């Protein structure tokens, strides 16, 4: 087994084990970006060498995932063969092959997340340097695992008849719905910031205010799933990756029927689990922040991230 294949095995295990331990900590520690950025706190300085530009740092840290993904999808480290066989290389797969189709799905998500979305947002709060650094680490591992898995013999064998599978297309359909929902609800937040920026620029005091650091503007979002929850963009992202996992990988299964505790979980499912466990605490705390900030004006019937439940 080559070194990359060994890393794949080790990182897949740790990437599965860490989120359940980190998730409870997230309920007590605010990740210092967005509405929890030190730049938005009245008790903390708005300028520091540890605070970095929100948009630029976001682009850099999110680009890590697709770059790493492309590298290992093309390198295909699990094809550790004594001789190179071009017909087994992802480079030679026809465009109709399911692994390549799913790779394009993955890259489309990150094209929006890493480039289109941050460039469309009117503003973004400064983030503490630890946020992009930790995100770079997460994205390095996830990009490596996903690219390695989709180019592996395991994935290609599982997906060999995927284009004729109801489950595959159901997963793809759910993933597309989640992706579109994520974009739509993000656009509602962007529109709030655009209106705030336009109002600020029209204000007589706008010129003097430009000389001092500005706090990010927040308002109550409305429309679509915002009628029911505070974080529909999170829910839609989970649905997107649930659909991707359903299409790309088998459900977690026992490695040996006689040893049920030994479970094989492919990277798409590991990524989904990590997303839910690490994002859910922030959604719950953000929901509480909304209610504290806006008080009686905030819709009482609105939940945090799952309509009618959570």
UniProtKB/TrEMBL annotation:
GO terms for molecular function: oxidoreductase activity, acting on the CH-CH group of donors. The chain crosses the membrane at residues 58-78, 98-115, 127-146, 166-185. It is found in: Membrane. One of its GO terms (cellular component) is membrane. Keywords: Membrane, Transmembrane, Transmembrane helix. It holds the Pfam family Steroid_dh. InterPro entries: 3-oxo-5_a-steroid_4-DH_C (IPR001104), SRD5A/TECR (IPR039357). It is a multi-pass membrane protein. Residues 129-249, 267-309 form the 3-oxo-5-alpha-steroid 4-dehydrogenase C-terminal domain. PROSITE patterns: S5A_REDUCTASE. GO terms for biological process: lipid metabolic process. The keyword Transmembrane applies. PANTHER family: 3-OXO-5-ALPHA-STEROID 4-DEHYDROGENASE, STEROID 5-ALPHA-REDUCTASE DET2. Belongs to the steroid 5-alpha reductase family. This is 3-oxo-5-alpha-steroid 4-dehydrogenase C-terminal domain-containing protein. It comes from Piloderma croceum (strain F 1598).
